[in-house]
From TrEMBL:
Lineage of producing organism: Eukaryota, Viridiplantae, Streptophyta, Embryophyta, Tracheophyta
Assigned protein family: Belongs to the peptidase C13 family.
Keyword presence, Signal: yes
Highest rank taxon of the organism: Eukaryota
Entry GO terms, CC: vacuole
GO BP: any one term: proteolysis involved in protein catabolic process
One GO MF term: cysteine-type endopeptidase activity
Leader peptide range in chain numbering: 1-21
Keyword vocabulary terms for this entry: Signal
The name this protein goes by in its record: Uncharacterized protein
Species: Lolium multiflorum (Italian ryegrass)
Length: 329
């Protein structure tokens, strides 16, 4: 059940759609550095679609992403966060009020805006937020992506998924139609979309038009699973602290985020990040190629190689299995 898998098995589906340069860079460089070459506001929408302590990792990923964007200079008014928010105070949480995304990680929960929590984390609100349509919202903070033509938008979605669907009810056709509508409204210059879920490639493959300035990258192709990481049972240093019975992160997500943490993002373009790290995990299945890389990403690869990775779908089972095991002891 808890299958051991190495990062090289993870593949990247990369769909480049008419964006020149590195949009990721534009998100994370402080505005003062980019005034010369970037006009407009940087927005982000972060969504953890799941709930329950067995899915700890999705909300941990989103909290971590928030901290990175915040450090990169985005303002809270431009970051919209969807998370059920049932983790920090969960009775199963060994560290009340704290969420970590790495075995030795510090708290990533502090400061995260609670725009849409509980049942307000839903497809209707997500699409309304993307479109900047306040009238279509139900509940929540009312924050939407009120963007204009020069703006840049980053969307990060982490959840379970299946062919053509994220979570239980965000269908690829609805998502792509919404993105086309957003483009037709002329309300962004570039949009970068990261998705972590099983079969996440199926959200975009063959569906996302090449001419709407959207750069989408996914944790898996249209027919494969994505992987949870820092799971109970991991090797020395790589397992979560023993009191955690749940996985702390998702492999694809922590790879780009730990890379972002490790680098000075003011200098790094998305291409560089991609070359350095995402490529290691997703671009090549030949381990020999990985030895050519340098610097912190090597460490990252080695660290993650010895971590236990579990299929997204099995990660819940792993949690319940550990829970049962502990309660029996
Ligand atoms: C978690 O508990 C703290 C302290 O009791 C409280 O301030 C906070 O509102 C709670 N958060 C949630 C999401 O319930
Ligand atoms: C994108 O390309 C397709 C096919 O060439 C075309 O039908 C469509 O109008 C284009 N859309 C935009 C927004 O330019
Ligand atoms: C998707 O990934 C699976 C498993 O890694 C692989 O067997 C399959 O060939 C890939 N499909 C495509 C279209 O790349
Ligand atoms: C966490 O810290 C311990 C002790 O310093 C170290 O052995 C371990 O490798 C670290 N784990 C990770 C994933 O960095
Ligand atoms: C990154 O940019 C800053 C100034 O923007 C510069 O001082 C620093 O040396 C750069 N770092 C690297 C590694 O290029
Ligand atoms: C991996 O390395 C080999 C030889 O070192 C090379 O022929 C091959 O093209 C590389 N594969 C990728 C995906 O870069």
């Amino acid at each position: 059940m808890a299958r051991l898998c190495f990062p090289v098995l993870v593949q990247l589906v990369l769909l480049i759609a008419g964006v020149a340069g590195g949009p990721w860079q534009e998100f994370l460089r402080p505005q003062s550095d980019v005034d010369n070459d970037v006009v407009g506001t940087r927005w982000a929408v972060l969504i953890a679609g799941s709930k329950g302590f067995e899915n700890y990792r999705h909300q941990a990923d989103v909290c971590h992403a928030y901290q990175i964007l915040k450090k990169g200079g985005l303002k809270d008014e431009n970051i919209v966060v969807f998370m059920y928010d049932d983790i920090a105070n969960n009775s199963a949480n060994p560290r009340p009020g704290v969420i970590i995304n790495h075995p030795n990680g510090s708290d990533v929960y502090a400061g995260v805006p609670k725009d849409y929590t509980g049942n307000d984390v839903n497809v209707n609100n997500f699409l309304a937020v993307l479109l900047g349509d306040k009238s279509a919202l139900t509940g929540g903070s009312g924050k939407v992506v009120d963007s204009s033509q020069d703006d840049h938008i980053f969307v990060y979605y982490t959840d379970h998924g299946g062919p053509g669907v994220l979570g239980e009810s965000l269908f690829a056709s609805d998502l792509v139609a919404t993105l086309e509508k957003k483009h037709a409204a002329g309300t962004y210059r570039s949009l970068v979309f990261y998705v972590e879920s099983c079969e996440s490639g199926s959200m975009f493959e063959g569906l996302l038009p090449a001419n709407i300035s959207i750069y989408a990258t996914t944790a898996s192709n249209a027919t494969e699973d994505s992987w949870a990481t820092y799971c109970p049972g991991g090797g020395q240093g790589e397992a979560p602290p023993p009191e955690f019975m749940t996985c702390l992160g998702d492999l694809y997500s922590v790879s780009w985020m730990e890379d972002s943490d490790a680098h000075n993002l003011r200098n790094e373009s998305f291409e560089l990040q991609y070359d350095n790290t995402l490529d290691l995990f997703m671009g090549s299945s030949d381990p020999a190629n990985h030895s050519a890389t340098v610097g912190s990403t090597d460490n990252l690869l080695m660290q993650l190689s010895s971590a236990v990775h579990v299929h997204q779908r099995d990660a819940d089972l792993l949690y319940f299995w550990h829970k049962v095991r502990i309660s029996v002891i």
